[in-house]
Amino acid sequence: MQSYEAPDNLLTDRVLLVTGAGDGIGRVAAKTLAAHGATVVLLGRVLGKLEAVYDEIVAAGHPTPAILTLDLSMAGLHECQQVAEVIENTFGRLDGVLHNAAVLGEITPLEMYDPDTWDFVMKINLRAPFVLTQALLPLLKQAADASVVMTSSSVGRRARAFWGAYAISKCGIEGMVQMLSDELANVSNIRVNAINPGATRTNMRAHAYPGENPATVTTPEEIMPLYLYLLGPDSVGITGQSFDAQPPKASA
Length: 252
Ligand code: NDP
Fold this sequence. Notes:
252 residues; alpha/beta; Rossmann fold; seven-stranded parallel sheet; binds NADPH dihydro-nicotinamide-adenine-dinucleotide phosphate
């Protein structure tokens, strides 16, 4: 699915939520989904960044998006239920979620890892996708074929030394995709899958690999075929799987 070719109208009439939509892969995903017809709910913590994405989508003539500011490090069930309520009241439907927001935390041995940083990383990378999905399930269940996409990493498949809470959170994401897809398989039309973006040119990648020349790293635009495939109707029936958006390399 790394070479999937999506028609321009693939996502017409669909409402999709993207977390971390203000920067990096999430920003490009939001614009790409909108370019294929989706109405995108842009969720993030910095209003200015979300407004910039909003303006680009509107200027390109794509469906008008919506903005929801939320700091996922502080998002409990109440805040996530409010997200669900706003989406229901505004659009009356939700066809998919891309859980993309994450933070790197520290790259350091567990022996020295700061427990508060651990909690912070876990809240954003693992707890927020769980609670937000829980709050959105009633709405997702009403869709004809809803897609939940969670973002993993190569260290979510095999935790490597020094990757700390980030790696453990991504191992948790892989587990959550397996568990949730099983739980929903026979009782809903919701499919749940994971994407490992692979090494991708963003602030996170630059932070994790400061010595790397960014020009040598794949751009977010190049990994979009898999995002379109999993969030669009061509992946109906595919659930519980973890996909690579590009051929594997060392990545965050
Ligand atoms: P970036 O750091 O570039 O972007 C992360 C996004 O998450 C930003 O929009 C950021 O918002 C948002 N975010 C972070 N913390 C919060 C929070 N507390 N509340 C709301 N939003 C928040 O990372 P990437 O684009 O590189 O990563 C996207 C996903 O891909 C992540 O899940 C990452 O783990 C995964 N990934 C990335 C790889 C890569 O090489 N880039 C490789 C493997 C996996 P803000 O702009 O406000 O900081």
